[in-house]
Design brief:
The complex is a heterodimer of chains A (about 240) and B (about 130). The longest helix of chain A has 30 residues. Chain A is about 85% helix and about 0% strand. The model of chain A has no long low-confidence stretch (mean pLDDT about 85). Chain A has 13 helices and no strands. Chain A has two domains: about 80 residues, no CATH class; about 150 residues, no CATH class. Chain B has about 130 residues and is mainly α. Chain B has two domains: about 80 residues, no CATH class; about 50 residues. In chain B, about 80% of the residues lie in helices and about 0% in strands. Chain B contains five helices and no strands. In chain B, helix 1 packs across helix 2 and helix 1 packs across helix 3. The longest helix of chain B is centred in the C-terminal third of the chain and has 46 residues. The mean pLDDT of chain B is about 85. The chains are: A mainly alpha (about 240), B mainly alpha (about 130). At the A-B interface, helix 1, helix 3, helix 4, helix 5 and helix 6 of A face helix 1, helix 2, helix 3, helix 4 and helix 5 of B.
Chain lengths: ~240, ~130
């Protein structure tokens, strides 16, 4: 049984780790690459995991204590409708280029991941868990259930993908000399789902709106197409 | 702010209800987001009072809400070690390659789109 004290402490742990991570992130603003790699989503989970392992606390217990944040994540998802509404005049005129990018990005993410994993000798179970990696966690879990993948492995891979994309994305955009916030946002949303969207909103409101759009469209497209492809390939 | 939060919770609830009763594989909050977006588009007036403030607050702290899920990555024990190597290299490598390819494609497609639009404009202008 978990007492109210442990519950509060484990929820506080998330906030404390986030505050430290956020401070660390802010101190390195002048060095863009280090700044990006020190994103709170990279450092805070590391701190929390270290504390849990040292104190010998089960992940499930920590997860239960942090249920309020899981719930708020849903509310924040609904809130993405507002920037989308405010930026819609920018989005509507770009329907064709956006759809081309979406179709390419969502397909390329799956095909490149499956081919590389297969070349590196991944088993069928791993391949199936990797397939929905660029989709937002709740949709990926729905897909995992349909195609028979291990849900905790899928969730882990999805989150890891988001963290890699969100922390390295801005560095890549610098190298590629991409300055257009619409491109940055849409790519972050397609490749790094919600985590990328959180990062995109730090860049600008426009960037965040395009990221929300990319996240929603990739999720919907993959949810419809992937179960059908996996089932027909495995047969 | 309070009324804005109430609106968001209302749409989250409607979204969850639609997801549960229709059996659509899309999560409830995503359905709620789509419905709220449609409702805002249909409304001719500006944003309802407090909704902008509430959404701004939640989106600003989106990273914080992802932390509990991210921690789970360190507690996956059921995989053999050789699979770990494959998984980590695949995720890092293909995510970066996909981002580069998608970003370059979008930059190119946007440029083309802009050129076609300008051409159309000048043709109309010439006639």
């Amino acid at each position: 049984m978990m007492t109210a004290i442990t519950l509060t402490l484990l929820l506080t742990l998330t906030f404390v780790a986030f505050s430290i991570a956020f401070w660390l992130y802010g101190t390195n603003k002048t060095r863009p690459i280090i700044h990006s790699l020190l994103h709170p989503l990279m450092t805070a989970p590391l701190m929390v995991a270290a504390v849990l392992l040292l104190a010998n606390i089960d992940y499930q217990q920590y997860r239960d204590a942090n249920q309020p944040l899981f719930f708020l994540l849903g509310t924040a998802t609904v809130a993405l409708a507002i920037p989308l509404h405010q930026q819609f005049h920018n989005i509507r005129t770009l329907a064709k280029p956006l759809l081309i990018t979406l179709a390419f990005g969502a397909t390329f993410a799956i095909v490149s991941a499956l081919t590389t994993a297969w070349l590196l000798g991944a088993t069928i179970d791993t391949l199936i868990a990797i397939a929905p990696k660029s989709v937002t966690t709740p949709i990926a879990l729905g897909i995992a259930e349909k195609i028979g993948a291990d849900p905790s492995l899928t969730a882990g891979i999805v989150v890891f993908t988001g963290v890699v994309g969100a922390s390295c994305g801005p560095v890549l955009f610098r190298w590629l000399r991409i300055t257009d916030d619409r491109v940055k946002g849409f790519v972050l949303g397609i490749c790094a789902h919600g985590v990328g969207t959180a990062r995109a909103f730090e860049i600008s409101g426009k960037c965040g709106a395009f990221s929300s759009l990319g996240l929603g469209l990739t999720g919907a497209l993959t949810a419809i197409a992937l179960p059908w492809i996996v089932i027909s390939v495995l047969k | 702010m309070l009324r804005g939060l109430l609106t968001l919770l209302l749409f989250q609830g409607i979204g969850e209800a639609v997801a549960q009763f229709s059996g659509i594989p899309i999560p409830g909050p995503v359905i709620g987001m789509i419905l709220l977006f449609l409702a805002l588009q249909l409304r001719s007036k500006g944003l309802p009072f407090g909704l902008g403030e509430a959404s701004h607050f939640l989106i600003r702290w989106l990273s914080l809400m992802f932390i509990p899920a991210c921690v789970g990555f360190f507690f996956l024990a059921s995989i053999e070690t050789n699979q770990w190597f494959a998984i980590i290299s695949v995720v890092v490598l293909t995510t970066l390659v996909t981002m580069i390819a998608t970003a370059l494609l979008m930059k190119y497609v946007l440029m083309k789109h802009l050129l076609i639009k300008q051409q159309l404009k000048s043709e109309v202008h010439n006639q």
